[in-house]
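Per your request, structure below.
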């Protein structure tokens, strides 16, 4: 690589770390003085085409040299993911394989359609360990996804340690759906996840869901309820029945403390406050509450993201709305206020929906979503008037009411995630299900090499 920043060096080391175990080579990462000789992979941050933008890259493969050029380390990182995908699938195994390690020659110029290519993981309904989360991050990075939204609290569990309100995790994190033992991330665990994601160019977006979805918090601190009585912990899967007490001052002390602690641990500019399914809060109280939370976050220097219901308040232009339900109203209300949208239409993007009626895991309230249905849609066509200019990007939520092990998560996410990543990356005019289906088939052996428990959908002719 070119002599450069620590970050570039780290990208080179990441690639060496991916190539060495399966090839048995001892690829070294060095600063190059002048053009490297035959047989090298050259990472450069100078002379990149400005049109590649913040995340694009150019990959040139000749018989002698592989060159990745980008404007940023993130671009180099995406170029590297493409190199992995051009090599034989066994490159992703973790023991020495036969090779030969060849790829076609040529030139690729590649950059994303949207800046926000996200996935969401619900660690509240069932808890997932730091190891699970970092494994998911690695799989997302392979497909150039750049945001991981962590749903850190819900009725069933509070999963992030808050020093000023310790019972949130000690009590509120103790269980999960079905009544089994839950768990939580210490602040160090969370910081580790954030750093791990950062090294894969993924921004962690924390979500603390409010004013509904809060039984775990209310059960930990009875003073947060209007009648002062702490409810029992909840281990079912119904939604829409709990609310913070909007009229009590302590509610805002709580919110300020929680948001401040999580914001301090989160370098990214975004903070998701949920705001969905607040059926136990009256509309005027809901609006008053979200309005106040938006101000608290502004003071903390964070952009507020919320599920689409937040369109009902006066949004700041920097706030972001996550479209999830099929109605058009909230998305329209939001673009009229000048805010941008993240598109997560449940009937296309929800990775917790069953593939077919026979899928054992998952829910089906938004319909079954087979691999074709998950792929064949355009974020810009969904709500009239919502064009690319209003769309920050796309995000695929993985709710975990029915999922309690990493294998379950993998089964629901794959093979839908690669198609989802392509929706975020590739222009609509270049996407076609019949062509895509052939390329997805080739991902089968790669997912196998990575040990991913993916759904071998009969829609795909797996090799
Ligand atoms: C709706 S999507 C929810 C979640 C559930 C999910 C299950 C959204 C903002 N709220 O509370 O987990 O459906 O699919």
């Amino acid at each position: 690589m070119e002599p450069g920043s620590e970050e570039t060096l780290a990208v080179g080391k990441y690639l060496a770390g991916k190539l060495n175990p399966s090839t048995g080579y001892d690829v070294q990462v060095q600063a190059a003085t002048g053009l490297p000789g035959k047989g090298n992979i050259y990472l450069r941050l100078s002379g990149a085409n400005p049109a590649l933008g913040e995340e694009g890259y150019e990959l040139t493969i000749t018989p002698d040299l592989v060159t990745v050029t980008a404007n940023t380390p993130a671009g180099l990182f995406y170029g590297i993911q493409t190199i992995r995908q051009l090599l034989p699938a066994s490159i992703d195994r973790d023991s020495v394989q036969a090779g030969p390690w060849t790829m076609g020659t040529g030139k690729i110029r590649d950059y994303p359609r949207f800046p926000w290519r996200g996935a969401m993981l619900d660690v509240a309904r069932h808890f997932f360990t730091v190891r699970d989360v970092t494994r998911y991050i690695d799989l997302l990075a392979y497909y150039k996804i750049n945001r991981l939204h962590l749903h850190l609290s819900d009725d069933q569990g509070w999963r992030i340690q808050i020093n000023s309100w310790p019972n949130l995790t000690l009590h509120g994190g103790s269980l999960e759906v079905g009544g089994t033992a839950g768990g939580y991330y210490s602040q160090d665990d969370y910081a580790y996840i954030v750093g791990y994601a950062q090294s894969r160019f993924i921004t962690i977006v924390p979500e603390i869901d409010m004013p509904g979805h809060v039984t775990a918090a209310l059960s930990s601190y009875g003073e947060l309820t209007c009648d002062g009585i702490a409810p029992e912990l909840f281990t079912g899967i119904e939604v829409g029945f709990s609310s913070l007490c909007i009229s009590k001052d302590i509610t805002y002390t709580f919110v300020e403390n929680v948001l401040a602690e999580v914001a301090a641990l989160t370098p990214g500019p975004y903070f998701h406050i949920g705001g969905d399914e607040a059926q136990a809060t009256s509309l005027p109280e809901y609006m008053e509450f979200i309005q106040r939370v938006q101000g608290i976050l502004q003071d903390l220097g964070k952009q507020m993201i919320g599920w689409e219901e937040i369109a009902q308040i006066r949004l700041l232009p920097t706030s972001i709305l996550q479209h999830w339900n099929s109605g058009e109203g909230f998305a329209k209300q939001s673009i009229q206020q000048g805010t941008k949208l993240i598109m997560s239409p449940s009937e296309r993007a929800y990775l917790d929906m069953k593939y077919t009626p026979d899928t054992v895991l998952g829910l089906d309230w938004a319909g079954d979503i087979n691999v074709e249905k998950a792929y064949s849609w355009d974020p810009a066509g969904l709500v009239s008037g919502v064009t690319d200019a209003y769309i920050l990007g796309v995000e695929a939520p993985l709710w975990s009411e029915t999922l309690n092990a990493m294998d379950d998560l993998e089964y629901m996410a794959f093979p839908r995630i690669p198609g989802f990543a392509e929706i975020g990356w590739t222009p609509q005019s270049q996407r076609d299900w019949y062509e895509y289906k052939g390329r997805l088939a080739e991902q089968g052996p790669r997912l196998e090499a990575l040990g991913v428990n993916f759904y071998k959908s009969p829609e795909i002719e797996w090799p």
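The pocket of TNX is lined by residues 239, 276-277, 307, 324, 350, 352, 363, 399, 401 (CB under 6 Å).

Regards,
D.
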